[in-house]
Automatic annotation (TrEMBL):
It comes from the Bacteria. InterPro entries: Cytidylate_Kinase-2 (IPR052922), P-loop_NTPase (IPR027417), Shikimate/glucono_kinase (IPR031322). Pfam families: SKI. Coiled coil: none annotated. This is AAA family ATPase.
Length: 176
């Protein structure tokens, strides 16, 4: 287990799990959002994004947190594990709402960009991460379920974690 991509719907707990996993393994933690987003919520072009991603993935080991399906060919060309955080809808929505609320109240800077979430953007905007979670939860589950059996990815070991208890146990049992 040297190159790992943790996937899941927004709010599922990918970042928390990925940081814990990277720390346990002593691997660099890479966050797709940090690679993608620029200051003032400006998006990287695909050329910029792909170049930064390829550079980040040139390391021997890493835990990569994030989806960005258009990067699958880049991320998974030389990967050995994909871990899918697939918690129930109710838990994922609760986590997405809680995170959005805390970030908008504390004005936590995201990804070293100066970007912060606002209450209005998180709860009342078409760009709301909560709305994004609502719209993508079911679609992601269908897509990830298909990917698990896609012959193009038979070089990858897929692990599906369906509860925080299962995720905690997975990390605790590493290197035993």
């Amino acid at each position: 287990m040297k190159k790992i991509n943790v996937i899941g719907t927004s709010g599922s707990g990918k970042s928390t799990f990925s940081r814990l996993l990277a720390n346990k393994l002593g691997y660099p933690y890479l966050e797709m959002d940090a690679i993608f987003w620029k200051p003032n919520w400006q998006e990287s072009t695909d050329d910029e994004f792909f170049c930064k991603l390829k550079h980040s993935l040139a390391q021997e080991t890493w835990v990569l947190d994030g989806n960005y399906s258009r990067t699958t060919d880049i991320k998974w060309s030389n990967i050995d594990h994909v871990i899918w955080i697939d918690y129930p809808f109710s838990r994922t929505m609760y986590q997405a709402i809680k995170r959005a609320f805390i970030r908008s109240v504390t004005k936590t800077e995201l990804w070293g960009t100066g970007n912060t979430e606002t209450f209005a953007k998180s709860f009342f905007s078409r760009d709301s991460v909560i709305l994004w979670t609502l719209k993508t939860y079911k679609r992601n589950r269908v897509r990830y379920s298909k990917i698990l059996h896609d012959p193009r990815y038979r070089h990858i070991k897929f692990i599906r974690l369906t509860s925080p208890k299962m995720a905690k146990k997975f990390i605790e049992e590493l290197n035993r």
